[in-house]
């Protein structure tokens, strides 16, 4: 074979390998793809919400607060170390405009190496966890979670490639299948008396099914590790994201660490269940929008006005849907806990209510972080992580002497009154979206939420006379929805926002109808129709 023929074959092989990373074909029909992605996301989130709710209801009746407390102790260690296996490299794969096989292959082996190292570190940390919490059962639980970390590492880059190619239907099918398989395994294990091991088995099965699904759907296969791939800028980008994640994770999980250490598994179990019960509906909003809106916003950075209008429309709809919903959960916290978790979790009700105060604004504030990501402000995002962590740690330590209730009250008050205003100012200093834009956009939803809360509290004595709990909750939800709609209809800005809730996603202003604006609005409307306090 001549040198020219050999070179041609080599070029063809490289091009064939690189086909998995090309995105030019996506730009031709971006609006339609984003709309379909929003519809798929809606269906997927409904399914995942049903599975999550089913898991919480069924397992809460098969397991005890102590079982969840033990898992919560281990989750602090595994969750912290687990951030290093990603290192922001999957995000770089999704966002980078030009990618080749050598770069992704290098990132894949970096993730595998990091996962293996984290597994070993987690196993080595097991004796430390046993000593710190004075709980010998943590040894086996920690080893089980460490194995799950290693398995997960094999799916990181393949999943990122699927997201890069906007294959939302495939991703949704994998996630739902993995959740369902993990839940089934956990329930069967719990029925056979596995107790806290049922939650460990859940993680192992979920990780295994995810790897099998992503490798089946994504045909890219890694080669042997090799040097020479230009990934330095990707590592720098991922490093800043990881820095933010580390500081944020430390602040968000210090409450679990200190409650487990000072007050034991029972208090931690109550607290963690309250947090997770609030997390489920919040995740239905933030997770899908993060997957769809951020790539779309990234393509609008060169047109500041369109960027600003698109982001504020998303923020407006999130606030309209989540704020009245969270108020409903606050006003009926004791009834919700009793209905969903059972009488053994009754003490969780007050914790759930207090954490709900922070959950009112958190779905909206989580979107502010998108501005840092899409505007290339990763270093500022890292700095904000440090600032917010100091505030959160201070509040948690201040509330610790009063147990889980004290921690929940201190954290909620600080997050609502200090962290949120500071974040709006910090993010609004630069870029198209200014500080005043945040307040103006969420104002109608805040009014609706406050009015709904007042009416629900006044109505509680009457609602308490309804003997059937689902009927009582249904009436309370109807009251919150009716009051919210009334307030939105009474406010000019609320009426404009309600008119923009439509399937087509057309903006209310006739002058602004860009395809990328439609893509965000469509995806957002689909996700919100299905409606992470997020750790």
Report on this model:
The chain has 535 residues and is mostly helical. The protein folds into 2 domains: 11-230, no CATH class; 263-535, no CATH class. The chain has helices spanning 3-18, 24-27, 30-62, 65-86, 89-95, 101-133, 138-153, 156-164, 168-191, 197-217, 232-262, 265-298, 304-331, 333-340, 348-359, 362-374, 378-399, 403-428, 435-463, 469-490, 492-499, 515-529. It is globular. Residues 1-14 and 503-535 have low confidence and may be disordered.
Structural class estimated from helices and strands = mainly alpha
What is the total number of structural domains? 2
Strands, count? 0
Q: Portion of residues in helices?
A: over 70%
Radius of gyration equals 24 Å
Count up the helices. 22
β-strand percent reads under 5%
Largest beta-sheet characterization: none
Low-confidence stretches: 1-14, 503-535
Following the backbone from N to C, one meets helices and strands in this order, namely HHHHHHHHHHHHHHHHHHHHHH
Shape: globular
Cα(first) to Cα(last) distance is 59 Å
Average pLDDT confidence is: 80
